[in-house]
């Protein structure tokens, strides 16, 4: 399997917007997202992916075919994270792998590549009811960190599991 992570250019915004529709559709059974009057799922941070300095947006390719995306935030200050206790933390905002590629290691390898590209403290959150995402992230993070991570279920400003860990680049 050849996997490639590549930055999303502003010119490819429409492609990302289309993938976000699939992502929101898939996750709507867990998070309650609803269609707007135009039959679309809203994603209010789309333009922020290119205007906020701390955001990074990637397409995931398997064997040259588009397989998903990852939206991350780098160096988020302590007051904006849920579990991390370090000064700045990277956050996996949104992560999506097309159904066609699930269960093939695409998501795991993409996550590993991103964690290795940006070694630091990381925080990943899932909604309370999204058990498949929670299982995926626990498996991936456990393998990436050799079990050295913490997970808590939060209620309040965020309802759901949050994993926190330190990623170190292995050369």
Automatic annotation (TrEMBL):
It comes from the Bacteria. Its EC number is 2.3.1.-. One of its GO terms (molecular function) is acyltransferase activity. Keywords: Acyltransferase, Transferase. InterPro entries: Acyl_CoA_acyltransferase, GNAT_dom. CDD domains: NAT_SF. Residues 3-171 form the N-acetyltransferase domain. This is GNAT family N-acetyltransferase. The lineage of its organism: Bacteria, Bacillati, Bacillota, Bacilli, Bacillales.
